[in-house]
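Standup notes, structure subgroup. Blocker cleared on the uridine-5'-diphosphate input:
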Amino acid sequence: FYEQDSYFTQAEIQGETWSDFQPQQSNMRILVTGGAGFIGSHLVDKLMENEKNEVIVVDNYFTGSKDNLRKWIGHPRFELIRHDVTEPLLVEVDQIYHLACPASPIFYKHNPVKTIKTNVIGTLNMLGLAKRVGARILLTSTSEVYGDPLIHPQPETYWGNVNPIGVRSCYDEGKRVAETLMFDYHRQHGIEIRIARIFNTYGPRMNIDDGRVVSNFIAQALRGEPLTVQKPGTQTRSFCFVSDMVDGLIRLMEGENTGPINIGNPGEFTMLELAEIVKELINPKVEIKMVENTPDDPRQRKPDITKAKELLGWEPKMKLRDGLPLMEEDFRLRLGVSKEK
Ligand code: NAD
Ligand code: UDP
Ligand code: UDP
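Run returned:
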């Protein structure tokens, strides 16, 4: 009767009639918070490929856009709700991918109090929802919980080196509290939780002017402007292509491990190296310009993905040099810059 009347959630049906719960093979109603954003919209694309999935997106469009979900609007298995996760939400779902939160420093620093509310009250509300309907919930936490790390690369067992009162703290500490809430709901109420610690992710649909390094460099190269490397330029990051990220998140949700599990690409580059690669691939004529940095910028970051490999059978496939041209193509279309023959 689930086929005919999708009002019932999988958890309700499971409780009444089924003994064997097989998530991959069953109909699923899935909530994606922040689904109009960069990673969220790619996740929605992947979830919608499975005809057994019904997807509900809630988003307040702070950094996301309906445009990212254009192809699903009006689809019978898809629903889009304008909603702020800091307000309670009543829906009936089987799984919750909780992504809602601005991810780029210029956006999360724009209204830091709101960023904390989104991380703390937003996560609390989604956990309250998960508890009421018996849904499994996955939080997209961040490598920023490691702060300016004193251990390199960072394993999940590392507790981090985070400034509690700095300009990035609304995001870093917000995500740390969100992780704590997840584990307390798990221990106290038996909620099924999954925590992904996402490392820098890039790909099509990133906001063009969101200030993150890959989107900045590609937009600058296409506009013929200097690539702005923030000092000292020797700081490192590890960049994961968005399709690899989405694959890792789904494996984590479907698997048996609560996490936290690092999901990221261990290929590590200095910002100067990244600028050189973008210059070489996209526009050899542009200059590289050193500019001032912002406070508390982590000096190095690279995931230890041993756990993801062993527990999820996951590792990234896309190399930076292969992923950048895919993002370039998307940015060219959106900026209206065609390729010189
Ligand atoms: P994004 O800014 O593109 O997407 C976030 C989405 O959440 C947007 O659509 C935004 O409108 C929505 N949102 C923000 N506040 C909200 C609120 N209060 N209520 C409802 N919706 C709200 O960012 P992204 O890169 O897609 O990141 C998605 C998630 O992954 C975030 O939780 C982020 O912290 C995490 N993450 C991303 C990266 C990365 O490199 N992109 C790295 C680490 C962690
Ligand atoms: N909540 C929600 N949707 C639900 C159930 C709860 O948004 O379907 C919110 C609720 O408003 C509360 C939070 O989740 O603020 C935590 O809920 P919980 O039941 O754990 O705690 P309580 O309501 O007892 O504070
Ligand atoms: N960065 C840079 N030029 C830019 C934007 C960022 O050199 O135009 C540097 C920044 O100082 C940081 C790294 O790139 O060391 C990654 O910054 P981003 O904001 O993309 O992500 P996060 O700091 O959250 O890892």
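Discussed briefly. The chain has a mean pLDDT of 92.
Next: hand off to the docking folks.
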